Amino acid sequence: MLRVDKVYKSFGDFGAVNGVELNVEKGQIVAVIGPNGAGKTTLFNLITGILKTDKGRITFNGEDITNLPPHKICKKGIARSFQIANIFHRADVFTNVQVAVLSRQNRTYTFFKSADKMAIEETWQILDAVGLSDKANHIAGSLSHGDQRILEIAIALGNEPELLILDEPTAGMSPDETKRTMSLIQSLGETRGLTILFCEHDMDVVFNVAESIMVMHHGETLIQASPEEVRKDKRVQDAYLGGE
Ligand code: ADP
Ligand code: MG
Predict the structure, then answer these.
(1) What does the angle CA 1 – CA 99 – CA 192 come to, to the nearest 5 degrees?
(2) Ligand 1, from 10, 11, 33: best to mutate by most atoms within 8 Å of Cβ?
(3) Cβ neighbours for 98, distance < 8 A, ≥ 6 positions apart
(4) Is 148:126 a contact under the CB 8 Å cutoff?
(5) Are the CB atoms for 186 and 169 separated by under 8 Å?
(6) What is the pLDDT of residue 109?
(7) Residue 219: DSSP 8-state
(8) What is the Cα 10 distance to its own chain's centre?
(9) Rounded CA gap, 162 and 160, in Å?
(10) Mean pLDDT (whole number) for 87-103
């Protein structure tokens, strides 16, 4: 579904992404792991068009999407969440998701339209799927950090993506919230047939959930393989257990 082929990105003289390679099959849950500064966020910014690549090719469903603008990539079916939550803090939870659904349908939120025309049902479905229905009328800014991150996933789902990209979805979460988020990610893959690509710096978090793991180090792909193979890999062990 997604193929990143020898992609490069430098900031000045500094090569943040140095020939990275990544493959995501339809329906898979794929994790990118690597220490802070490995280039994970930069890679996601390149895939989603927020940054332009210096070199290399990115294809999605067989189409070259390299350096397309973000809104075009989004239209093709790739949605993402950010490492830092990106929500309308003063609107309620329901409205945050509803606006995302409406914007996908090229319609604008308005107080003057009848309720059935404003994606009510779809919004409730998404809130149910992520477990936020009972907080639908809460002001987004009043939610716990964990719920705000979940809301962000809900907003991304409003775009009805084929591929959902999540940048450190459990960052800053308590152990309970982390568990809940990881099982949410798993269930979204199963029940909605979504393909999910996410990154993490915590190796332990991903091993139960990911079907394929790409290990990134200094902007390069160290390995992409099953969790078992990655765990056994000598280079991965060296990169994580000293030898940095
Ligand atoms: P990760 O998400 O794996 O922690 P990042 O992709 O955020 O890593 O960053 C990779 C490297 O690129 C880091 O050394 C970071 O400081 C650098 N970097 C990221 N974005 C920029 C930028 N806009 N300008 C300069 N350097 C950047
Ligand atoms: Mg990052």
Answers:
(1) 35
(2) 11
(3) 109, 118, 119, 120, 123, 158
(4) no
(5) no
(6) 61
(7) T
(8) 22
(9) 7
(10) 91
Query: Which residue, chain included where needed, has tokens 């078992």?
Result: 228
List pLDDT tens digits, range 203-244. Answer: 777 888 999 999 999 999 999 999 999 999 988 888 776 544
In contact, 166 and 196? CB cutoff 8 Å: yes
Q: Are 149 and 169 in contact (CB under 8 A)?
A: yes
Contact between residue 61 and residue 108 where contact means Cβ atoms under 8 Å apart: no
- Tell me the pairing of strands 2-11 and 163-167: unpaired
Å from CA of 7 to ligand 2 middle = 17
Which residue is closest in CA terms to ligand 1's atom 17?
Answer: 16
Find tokens 């992409």 and name the residue.
224
In whole angstroms, what is the distance from residue 235 CA to residue 239 CA?
6
Superfamily classification of domain 1-77+161-171+194-244: P-loop containing nucleotide triphosphate hydrolases (3.40.50.300)
Ion ligand 2: residues, CB within 5 A, are 40-41
